[in-house]
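A further point concerns the way the authors explain their paired sequence and structure data. The central task, working out the structure tokens from the amino acid sequence alone, is never made concrete. I therefore recommend that a typical entry be quoted early in the introduction. An entry of this sort, consisting of the sequence and the corresponding backbone structure tokens, reads as follows:
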Amino acid sequence: MDDAVVVLEGSAIAYAGPAADAPSVPDAEVVTADTVMPGMWDCHVHVAGLVRLSLEDVFRVPAPLRAARATADIDRALRAGFTSVRDAGGMGVALGRAVAEGSIPGPHVYSANALLSPTGGHADLHDIPLDWFHDIAARDGMLRVCDGIAGCMTAVREQLRVGADIIKVCASGGVLTERDHPIHQQFTDDELRAIVEVAGMAERTVMAHCHGKPGMMAAIEAGVGTIEHGTYLDDEVCDAMRERGTILVPTRMIVTELTAAGQGELTPAMWSKLLETNERHRDAVALAHERGVTIALGTDVAMSRPELPAAWGNHARELPLLVDAGMTPLEALAAATANAPATLGPRAPQSGQLVEGFDADVITVTGDPSSDVTVLTDAANITGVWKLGDAVR
């Protein structure tokens, strides 16, 4: 809309619409910009403070060092126009508390705390003796294996105990682990239902890491809120997601950037899985969009150095990848704004839209991202960031 005005009052949006109808606000600070839009969401990040793509570094690198890196990471996200992030496994519970109390700058952080995986699954470290893994996992909460209905229920309750906003499960194998296959379902149907049930009792939704169709169908049937990645989805999966209202968070950025970076430190098994994923992933996202599945933006960023692939601060690189998969620029922007809060299920805030009464999470931009989303990939074009009405840039 040309010649529009957005009025912020306290922590909420008081008006958004034509300038001619805007209320008079004496002594208001006036900011003029090419574009005003809601603060963006990245619905799949890892607040982990890593500089190598190695899950073992979660335990090898001292937690204070990783936390220091992650503190800079989340501030970098905020300055790039991302006012909310959904931590799919990491230190987000603790750092989110620090942000909320005003100790450090950052976006709203909604965290799963630990990734839940069955023994031998995607969040297990396969070359570490299992008793060692259980011991170190108890000391650092990012990875957690659980088996059987009772064990899975306990693991969910542990995440709720520390204040997790969502629950993250590995419903299929993954790419950046050694022996699990991305297509294979990991948790049983009964285990998935138990996880969703316990989470639902506390009004938490479940995000399901899933590449393969068997795990996706089981997770959707169990009632998860989101499918993360979705590499091997097909028409049947898309129809089930649309019917159940399950959201896809595709994370194109990590797939494309890791592939472009080359094998590097990835093992031959990981590299082979990544190449196969890359061949299918764009078409999977295109199919989901074509079939009417709701899509929310997520990147899977974890790296603390901006020059690394899938690094914090570069979140908006996901937008042109969504456009490349068939979305219009406005649809890609909706994935980063209006669609995103629903990934929190019952705990979704009033956010992601310029609507009266919604949270005053707002950014100003040089250029017009509704016609060219790439303007958002340069943080220099983010000229202002307001979080709950407070100017943070």
In short: Residues 39-352 form a domain with the TIM Barrel fold (CATH 3.20.20.140).
